[in-house]
């Protein structure tokens, strides 16, 4: 049996801010705030029980998300909602790309 599903690009992260968010102005004049969010992975089975994390780059383009992100200190719990985006940019003489979460909303949360 096949289930119908509508296409979606939705990301929901809850983790901790790693480092200070940074603000910059792109050559186009667009303002951007970037931050990294660290999200713990579930414990693994077997003998290797070291805690592992995913470190996820987040880009804040809207005025509201930029303002919220700039108020986040290192280590703050945060909830990010948005979409996965691939961004292209110049890296010296070459073109490069990266995946990041484009934040639609940024909210402080308390984590254990």
- Helical fraction equals under 10%
Globular, elongated, flat, extended or rod-shaped: what is the shape? Answer: globular
Number of strands: 5
Radius of gyration over all CA atoms, rounded? 16 Å
**What is the CATH domain class of the domain at 15-41 and 51-87?**
Mainly Beta
Poorly predicted regions are none
Mean pLDDT: 93
Query: Could you spell the SSE succession in H and E letters?
Result: EEEHEE
| Count of DSSP H/I helices | 1
CATH topology of the domain at 15-41 and 51-87: OB fold (Dihydrolipoamide Acetyltransferase, E2P)
Strand content: over 45%
User: Could you give a short account of the major beta sheet?
Assistant: 5 strands, mixed, barrel
Protein model, in words:
With about 110 residues, the chain is mainly β. It has a domain at about 15-40 and about 50-85: OB fold (Dihydrolipoamide Acetyltransferase, E2P). It contains one helix and five strands, in the order βββαββ. It has one helix at about 65-70, and strands at about 10-25, 30-40, 55-60, 75-90, 95-110. It has a five-stranded mixed beta barrel. It is globular.
């Amino acid at each position: 049996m096949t289930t119908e599903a509508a296409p979606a690009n939705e990301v929901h992260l809850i983790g901790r801010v790693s480092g200070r968010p940074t603000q910059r102005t792109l050559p186009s004049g667009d303002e951007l705030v970037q931050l990294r969010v660290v999200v713990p992975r579930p414990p693994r089975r077997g003998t290797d029980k070291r805690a592992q994390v995913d470190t996820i780059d987040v880009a804040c383009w809207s005025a509201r998300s930029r303002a919220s992100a700039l108020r986040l200190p290192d280590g703050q719990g945060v909830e990010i909602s948005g979409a996965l985006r691939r961004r292209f940019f110049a890296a010296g003489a070459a073109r490069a790309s990266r995946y990041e979460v484009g934040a639609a909303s940024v909210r402080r949360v308390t984590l254990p």
